[in-house]
Amino acid sequence: TTQTRIATQPIPGQKPGTSGLRKKTRVFMQPGYLENFVQSIWDGIGGIAGKTLVVGGDGRFFNEAAIQTILKMAAASGAARVIVGQNGFLSTPAASNLIRVRGADGGVILSASHNPGGPDEDFGIKYNMSNGGPAPEGVTDAIFAATETIAHYDIQEGPDADLSVIGERPFGVMTLTVVDPVAEYAALMEKLFDFKAIRDLLKSGYQLRFDAMHAITGPYAVEILERRLGAAPGSVVNAVPSPDFGGGHPDPNPVWAKDLMDAMYAPDGPDFGAASDGDGDRNMIVGKGCYVTPSDSLAVLAANAQLAPGYASGLKGVARSMPTSCAVDRVAEARGMPCYATPTGWKFFGNLLDAGMATLCGEESAGTGSDHVREKDGLWAVLLWLNILAVKKQSVAEVMAEHWAEFGRTYYSRHDYEAIETGVANDLMAALRGSLGGLPGQAAGDLVVESAEDFSYTDPVDGSVASRQGVQIRFEGGARVVLRLSGTGTEGATLRVYLERFDPADFGQDPQGALAPVIKAVEALAGIAARTGRSGPDVIT
Ligand code: VG1
Ligand code: CO
């Protein structure tokens, strides 16, 4: 094999967002686009000579082609070893685990998560550190800086690697190790959870349905839920990963996992339902006739995690992203453990987990995880729920009723306005930011503003500061709204409006009804309808 140095020049806009670089697939397929970014990763982290990397992705269109390029570029820059999932498949949490158990120096994960896949849809790439977690902002900034000065990239010429056969072989100057994507992840799950208790629950006639949404968790869920835990064959639906996720949005929420919701609300539906996203790091939990919001799920897991063997000694602390509801804060307070609020995106949890300050983390966007890896983990959340249900011998609805009775209910919803013109979205946020100083004490609809801020976070471990992370407005009486622009989209801007209202006693309301005063207040403060011309959100979760 020969190494070639190819002259190139900076390509504008290669700035990683909430979770790596995400663009339309065709953008990534332009000559040099992926190569420029990959070389900038190598340059941004100080080179990869002699290092070991994990590489894999969610199997979406362009996954394997991108991996072949990355392997050739890793070899050309002198990597010692690259560990790849068979056929290029690795879920995001499994990649995080592999980095950790194999002692790798880092990893490259190919995914656009819950965004659709295909030649006209989305693709993404991100770098994870030796702790298995997404690169922190200092590193993504260095990678972005490298994209702005790049002059050449190095690549090996010659044939592609065979990723279909498990085993170890030379690839250029480096060693290529192709592994079963599921085995080490499944072994980790067996260590954390009481598989016997879950097996007994499933044997008792308990019915489970897991919707893999044609995405990466299919093979993981079949192995763990059906083969190891004895769920009836066929309990995992849409289990074969497809490059375009069967033409759907692999986003586990009531809108995009509607089939599962319909099944769970049918009179003779299953007892427990769950779904995961494109790259396997998100989860949706739904009981018979009982959808659990991600924020409530985090609170329930925080209150009950000690029922699973991996968490039997209790939690050191919990962390949530700032827009996630305060339901988990109430659990932390009652149990006397610290609770941290971080900016949106899993990279901000890494230091807290590494330092042993938090054991459990979560986001309102259906992401929950713990210190077992450094990514959120969809199947892990499903297994922790099943472990808790098996021990408590209660239905999901009973668990929720008991939880609210103890802690009160935090009504919560997120309203997304998608593909707004970027200028309109920026103006809306700028106007709102400009008004914050005068808001406290002011009426908004039928509510009164108590405090208003542009959220800024100082990492308690390394002191790094992330500012302008979203506008947070609290109202007298305990309601709250957060507004921020998405950092994962590939078209225009997406405005996310996060709404919550605490109710200590009345648990049976429809969430949109319970939140009506907050919705009215935010309209008065931000003028979303007037500025965007939209009569309502595109997606309500
Ligand atoms: C969204 C979610 C955020 C999540 C991120 C990555 O970001 O809001 O909570 O961490 O996606 O999720 P944004 O900037 O669009 O709001 V995924 O499953 O990449 O891995
Ligand atoms: Co994801």
SSE topology:
Blueprint: E1 3-7, E2 21-24, H1 25-28, H2 33-44, E3 52-57, H3 63-76, E4 81-89, H4 92-101, E5 106-110, E6 122-128, H5 137-147, E7 152-156, E8 167-171, E9 174-179, H6 183-192, H7 195-203, E10 208-211, H8 217-228, E11 236-237, H9 258-265, E12 272-276, E13 283-287, E14 290-292, H10 294-304, E15 318-321, H11 327-335, E16 339-342, H12 350-354, E17 360-363, E18 367-370, H13 378-392, H14 396-407, E19 409-420, H15 422-435, E20 443-444, E21 447-454, E22 457-458, E23 465-466, E24 471-475, E25 480-485, E26 493-503, H16 511-514, H17 516-526, H18 528-532, E27 539-540
Parallel strand pairs: 3-4, 3-5, 4-9, 10-11, 10-12, 15-16, 15-17
Antiparallel strand pairs: 1-7, 2-6, 5-6, 8-9, 12-13, 13-14, 17-18, 19-26, 19-27, 20-21, 21-24, 22-23, 24-25, 25-26
The structure holds alpha-D-glucose-1-phosphate-6-vanadate and cobalt (II) ion (CO).
Family: Belongs to the phosphohexose mutase family.
Region (Disordered): 1-21
Pfam families: PGM1_C_vert_fung, PGM_PMM_I, PGM_PMM_II, PGM_PMM_III
